[in-house]
Amino acid sequence: MTVTHPRRKSETYNLTNIRSTPYPNTLLDVILTLPETQARIVSLIVRETLGWSGDTPGTRRAIVRLSYREIKERIGRNSSSVISVAVEELVSRGIVETLDGSNRVLLSAADRQRLRAPLWFRIARMYVEVSEPLSSCG
C-alpha cells in the first residue's frame, strides 16, 4: 500500500513491509484530549493488543495481561498510585476495560486492588469494532 500526499502526488511512503499497529481514528480523537499518563496507558494497550495479529487472518489480539509495575516501566512512570488513578479515570470514562483472570469486568479500583494479580486490559469495544463491513462504507 502506498500513501500519497494530496498536494505532492510524487512524494509517497512504501508501507508494503512496514510492521505497524492500527490505531482506530475514534480512539485517536479521544487520546488527543487525555492527560499524558492516560494517553500513554491507552497507547500501550493498543500496541499490545491491536499491534499483534490474532489466530485468524484479519483479526487482532483483544486483551493483554499487564501488571502496574510493567505499565510503570513501559510508559516511564515511577508511581503505582499515578497508574492506579489513570486506570481508574480510563475505566470510568469507558475507554479501557479491566478484567480478572475469569474474564469478569472490574469496574472499581477496589475490585482491582482486591485481585492482587496482574490485570487483563482491553480497549472498549466501541472504539475497535466496525459495525458494518468496510466494503459497504462509503
Annotated CATH topology? Arc Repressor Mutant, subunit A
- Elements, N to C (H/E): EEHHEHHEHEH
Computed CA radius of gyration, to the nearest angstrom: 17 Å
Shape: globular
What is the averaged pLDDT score?
85
How many DSSP helices?
6
Domain unit count: 1
> Any low-confidence stretches, pLDDT <50, length ≥5?
134-138
The CATH architecture: Orthogonal Bundle
Q: Briefly, what CATH class? A: Mainly Alpha
**Spatial separation of the terminal alpha carbons:** 19 Å
Helix and strand composition category: alpha+beta
Q: Strands of the biggest beta sheet: in what spatial order?
A: 3-5-4
Could you state the CATH homologous superfamily? Winged helix-like DNA-binding domain superfamily/Winged helix DNA-binding domain
**Assembly status:** single chain
Helix content: 25-40%
Largest sheet: 3 strands, antiparallel
Strand content: 5-15%
DSSP strand count: 5
Q: Can you tell me about this structure?
A:
- This protein is of the alpha+beta class and 138 residues long.
- The protein has one domain (21-128): Winged helix-like DNA-binding domain superfamily/Winged helix DNA-binding domain (Arc Repressor Mutant, subunit A, Orthogonal Bundle), CATH 1.10.10.10.
- The chain is 38% helix and 13% strand.
- The protein is built from six helices and five strands.
- It has helices spanning 25-31, 36-49, 68-75, 80-92, 109-115, 125-128; strands spanning 2-4, 12-14, 64-66, 96-99, 119-123.
- A three-stranded antiparallel sheet has the order 3-5-4.
- A hairpin with a 7-residue loop joins strand 1 and strand 2 (12-14).
- Helix 2 crosses helix 4.
- The longest helix has 14 residues, at 36-49.
- It starts with a strand and ends in a 10-residue tail after the last helix.
- The model is unreliable at 134-138 (pLDDT under 50).
